[in-house]
């Protein structure tokens, strides 16, 4: 399944084009942009966790636009129904048949804004279709388009009027990132450029759905050496016996970390995974899947920060393979 | 899977490791017990090193950064050493003065002298204690610093293990094994405790490998040590020849075989002939041990050495000359004075301390050992003629009965040989000459090592029997054999033990230097009218008296009559003898205390061992067939040695770390990135272990730039104690060199 070398040599260029396009919108956040693209190529879903107004939605939109796929956006509210997400069968008087009206989830890129404001039932409807990549309504099944990616944004759990995602649901996101505030220079640039128009309008597609499919296909063929495999497993297994954790990383996270690492290698123009890929992705991929103990949470840091710190500690304790 | 424990135990000050390090060194240092008498030195070393290590541990609680704890330990050690060994010289009990410096100088010099003169086990002395306490404490500080500050417990473990094993080369004993075992237990405890600290650095496997290597090294060292070690061990160690009790003849052999030649004394004489300096005599051959004839002191006080009695048996018509000999003794203590026979008076600093024995005319000390210093002996040089000796009447009177006694069950070969070689002689003197000529004949070979095969060093009749059979031995055998034979023939005889004349000084022909290798034994036979007369049956040693050679010429003109070499050539003669094919001990043996001299070499080797290991590893990685990945390992280790990198870093991280802290010119920087890419592909890519032509020149440039970017002390540390050695245990040398092997 090794990718065509010629294709591989082109793909990084494609990937960097996408990154460049996103960066015109989200200045000063190259890691977030790269992470979003990585997750897309790894066929995962991304959860962006941050306070309102730091550009979560903008990042999602920019990615969607630059990849040229269909985009839909769901603003989650407490009264949103599952059928609003998945779609509904409507009786057509003319044809005297039930006709399926696709919901918002039928798009290459679904932006789920403030997913934690929706009721658990609606949340699970989205999450189910994320995992299955299909929608079942009234006993019939409709496949979702390829590529398919959900970028959900979430306000920090401590905020009012939110339903925190259960652990099992969070596990279905490949990675969690937080945007963070832009630095002074980036914010000043933003302030000036937004005077005239929103830069999102100027983003042009640099790749189409077929191009993304090719990237996804190529990422699957990226070589993962046994040394890096062992390194990856060592990190996962260390979380399971870690004294500061109630819950370690799941086997699903092993697969997701490996997939993400392959995608990252591809974006970097390599046909093999480095330990660095695994290390760089460990926190985004693993932090939201583990549960720190109460004692370790008692130090005043938030849950996600504590988790990130623990994962960093695990990385420090595991020797990087030398061969 | 190492569990990170940072969250629970953020500090891990390593108090337990410090304690284990201290116990390790103290256990290991107990091995010196085989070399030094008593245990006082150990307690002093224990006190000083405990205080030093405690100081380091206490300071570390507050200031963790090296070298502050180590400096604290050094200061504490110095204070404690001075308090123990130079208390009276300290002003206000704490401030060192000029006297303190002088005292320390004295302690060190006296220790060196002590080591030089003493034999194993060395008697306790404050200088020796000082050096041992200081040395052991220094090792304790090094071990503690390595184990706790540098987090290199395996490297630290090498020191005490070497300490425990080292004395084994000098003396092998059963207690050694116990000490090594105990040391090992503490070493393992130290490594285990280190592993319990946060971010462990040493796998237990590495510790076990080190331990096993150390033990095997030690055992191999013991079994391949020169046989001489066994010899000295079998006789219970090398004791002073003329100490109270014990058998001087047994010890004499040890001293002769000892590789180290120690000055014993020097003398200037007015005699025209070389002087034999007699120390003790042995006349009782019936006991289990042949002990020196004890000093007959009754009545007290009357026998002061400033005037000796008349020479027993010396008649007026024998030619004699008055001889004066000034002896300068090198020993700190004597129980017997080395003096020529027969002495008439001794001028010595405290003559009251010394008394003469009426029959043997030896001079012994009244109480414990006494410093002899410089003393003048007036003696007679007796020159009897062969006729005078031949005409001596039989002296089997009751007074001489003790000089004729022999046990009943002596081996038959002695009597048979005596009868055979004296068959033609009836006169006592001629018989004695016959014996001397027989023993000096070409059949007999001087050999200091042979008696070992004959169960010990010649003080039993079985040994004499074996000697007559094998015809190999040294002065003790020749002297005791002639004595026994003379007694069988009814000639009163005894064994004299002392020094042969020694080597004539080049600048002053009347002066001679005598060393421990000049220790000698010879027979004295009694002839009425002449008295006790010296014979020299040992070939190649001493000088043959004129009265025996002249007679030999007259009686047996065909036999060898060449006069024996003068003392100036005796050393050369000795060389010839010890150079014989069967004699290996005198030249190969690091017996006795000479291992002390090897100690600095050993310590140097130990200190340089990490550096040498590191250099060898570097060469392996740059070998012709090595892969780019192995070369990258070398870059990584060099960066780690210089404190630029952590042990666990991916190529990408390492390159970033180097770029961040080393100023590289563009060429080097580009090379680094290119090299990094090659390494990554080699290690993690799909087609691995392709030998790539190494950019050796680029690598060397890069390494040089890295070294230049660091202060000198980092560079020295990187060379002497490369941190990467400790790390490599983690990934295992096999794993590290797998790439090299695969490329071959």
Automatic annotation (TrEMBL), chain A:
Xref: Pfam families: AAA_3 (PF07726), AAA_lid_2 (PF17863)
InterPro entries attached to this UniProt entry: ATPase_AAA-3, CbbQ/NirQ/NorQ/GpvN, ChlI/MoxR_AAA_lid, P-loop_NTPase
GO molecular function: ATP binding; ATP hydrolysis activity
Domain called ChlI/MoxR AAA lid: residue spans: 237-294
Domain annotation ATPase AAA-3: ranges: 45-174
Protein name: ATPase
Organism: Amnibacterium flavum
Lineage of the organism: Bacteria, Bacillati, Actinomycetota, Actinomycetes, Micrococcales
């Amino acid at each position: 399944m090794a990718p065509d070398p010629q294709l591989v040599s082109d793909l990084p260029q494609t990937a960097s084009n996408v990154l460049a396009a996103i960066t015109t919108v989200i200045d000063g956040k190259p890691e977030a942009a790269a992470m979003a693209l990585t997750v897309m190529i790894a066929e995962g879903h991304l959860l962006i966790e941050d306070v309102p107004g730091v550009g979560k939605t903008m990042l999602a939109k920019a990615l969607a636009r630059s990849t040229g796929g269909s985009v839909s956006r769901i603003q989650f509210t407490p009264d949103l129904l599952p059928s609003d997400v998945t779609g509904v069968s409507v009786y057509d008087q003319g044809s005297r048949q039930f006709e399926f009206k696709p919901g918002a989830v039928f798009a290459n890129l679904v932006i789920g804004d403030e997913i934690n404001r929706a009721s658990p039932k609606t949340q699970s409807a989205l999450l189910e279709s994320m995992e299955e990549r299909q929608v079942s309504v009234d006993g019939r099944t409709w496949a979702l388009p390829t590529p398919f990616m959900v970028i959900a944004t979430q306000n920090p759990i401590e905020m009012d009027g939110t339903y925190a995602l259960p652990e099992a649901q969070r596990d279905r996101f490949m990675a969690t990132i937080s945007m963070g505030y832009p630095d002074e220079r980036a914010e000043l640039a933003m302030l000036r450029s937004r005077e005239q128009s929103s830069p999102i309008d100027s983003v042009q597609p640099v790749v189409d759905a077929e191009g993304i499919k090719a990237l996804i296909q190529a990422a699957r063929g990226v070589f993962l050496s046994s040394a890096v495999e062992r390194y990856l497993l060592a990190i996962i297994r260390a979380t399971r016996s870690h004294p500061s954790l109630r819950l370690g990383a799941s086997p699903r996270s092993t697969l997701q970390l490996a997939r993400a690492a392959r995608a990252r290698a591809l974006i970097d123009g390599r046909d093999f995974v480095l330990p660095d890929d695994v290390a760089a992705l460990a926190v985004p991929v693993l932090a939201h899947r583990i549960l720190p103990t109460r004692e370790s949470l008692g130090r005043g840091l938030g849950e996600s920060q504590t988790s990130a710190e623990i994962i960093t500690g695990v990385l420090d304790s595991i020797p990087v393979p030398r061969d | 899977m190492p569990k990170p424990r940072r969250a629970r135990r953020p500090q891990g000050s390593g108090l337990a490791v410090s304690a284990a390090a201290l116990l390790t060194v103290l256990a290991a240092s107990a091995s010196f017990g085989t070399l030094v008498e008593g245990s006082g030195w150990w307690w002093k070393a224990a006190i000083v090193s405990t205080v030093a290590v405690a100081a380091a541990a206490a300071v570390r609680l507050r200031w963790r950064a090296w070298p502050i704890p180590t400096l604290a330990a050094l200061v504490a050690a110095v204070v404690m050493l001075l308090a123990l060994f130079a208390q009276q010289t300290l002003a206000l009990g704490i401030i060192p003065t000029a006297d303190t410096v002088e005292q320390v100088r004295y302690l060190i010099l006296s220790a060196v002298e002590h080591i030089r003169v003493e034999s194993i086990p060395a008697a306790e002395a404050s200088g020796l204690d000082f050096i041992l306490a200081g040395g052991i404490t220094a090792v304790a500080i090094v071990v503690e610093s390595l184990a706790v500050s540098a987090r290199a417990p395996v490297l630290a473990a090498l020191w005490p293990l070497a300490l425990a094993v080292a004395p084994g080369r000098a003396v092998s004993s059963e207690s050694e094994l116990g000490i090594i075992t105990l040391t090992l237990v503490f070493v393992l405890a130290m490594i285990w405790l280190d592993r319990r600290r946060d971010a462990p650095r040493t796998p237990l496997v590495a510790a076990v490998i080190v331990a096993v290597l150390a033990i095997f090294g030690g055992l191999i060292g013991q079994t391949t040590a020169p046989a001489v070690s066994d010899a000295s061990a079998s006789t219970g160690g090398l004791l002073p020849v003329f100490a109270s009790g014990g058998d001087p003849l047994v010890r004499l052999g040890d001293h002769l075989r000892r590789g180290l030649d120690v000055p014993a004394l020097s003398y200037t004489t007015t005699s025209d002939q070389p002087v034999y300096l007699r120390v003790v005599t042995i006349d009782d051959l019936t006991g289990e041990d042949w002990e020196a004839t004890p000093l007959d002191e009754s009545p007290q006080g009357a026998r002061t050495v400033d005037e000796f009695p008349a020479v027993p048996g010396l008649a007026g018509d024998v030619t004699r000359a008055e001889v004066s000999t000034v002896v300068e003794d090198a020993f700190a203590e004597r129980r017997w004075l080395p003096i020529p026979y027969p002495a008439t008076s001794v001028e010595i600093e405290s003559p009251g301390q010394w008394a003469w024995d009426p029959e043997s005319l030896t001079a012994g000390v009244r109480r414990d050992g006494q410093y002899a210093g410089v003393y003048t002996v007036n003696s007679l040089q007796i020159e009897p003629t062969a006729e005078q000796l031949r005409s001596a009447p039989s002296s089997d009177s009751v007074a001489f009965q003790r000089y004729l006694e022999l046990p009943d069950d002596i081996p038959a070969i002695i009597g048979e040989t005596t009868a055979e070689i004296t068959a033609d002689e009836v006169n006592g003197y001629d018989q004695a000459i016959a014996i001397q000529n027989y023993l000096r004949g070409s059949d007999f070979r001087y050999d200091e090592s042979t008696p070992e095969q004959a169960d010990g060093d010649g003080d039993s009749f079985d040994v004499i029997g074996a000697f007559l059979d094998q015809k190999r031995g040294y002065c003790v055998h020749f002297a005791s054999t002639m004595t026994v034979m003379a007694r069988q023939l009814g000639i009163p005889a005894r064994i004299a033990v002392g020094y042969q004349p020694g080597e004539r000084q080049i600048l002053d022909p009347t002066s001679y230097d005598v060393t421990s290798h000049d220790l000698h034994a010879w027979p004295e036979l009694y002839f009425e009218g002449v008295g006790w007369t010296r014979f020299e049956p040992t070939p190649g040693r001493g000088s043959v008296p004129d009265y025996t050679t002249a007679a030999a010429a007259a009686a047996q003109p065909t036999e060898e009559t060449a006069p024996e070499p003068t003392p100036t050539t005796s050393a050369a003669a000795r060389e010839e003898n010890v150079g014989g094919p069967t004699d290996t001990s005198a030249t190969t043996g690091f017996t006795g205390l000479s291992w002390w001299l090897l100690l600095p070499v050993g310590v140097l080797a130990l200190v340089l061992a990490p550096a040498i290991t590191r250099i060898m590893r570097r060469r392996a990685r740059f070998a012709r067939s090595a892969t780019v990945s192995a070369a990258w390992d070398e870059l990584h280790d060099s960066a780690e040695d210089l404190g630029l990198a952590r042990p666990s870093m991916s190529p990408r991280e390492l390159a970033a770390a180097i770029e961040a802290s080393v100023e590289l010119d563009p060429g080097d920087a580009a090379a680094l990135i290119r090299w990094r890419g090659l390494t990554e592909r080699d290690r993690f890519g799909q087609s691995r272990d392709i030998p790539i032509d190494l950019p050796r020149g680029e690598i060397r440039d890069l390494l040089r730039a890295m070294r230049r970017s660091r202060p000198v002390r980092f560079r020295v540390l990187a060379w002497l104690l490369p941190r990467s050695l400790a790390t490599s245990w983690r990934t295992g040398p096999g794993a590290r060199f797998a790439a090299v092997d695969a490329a071959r």
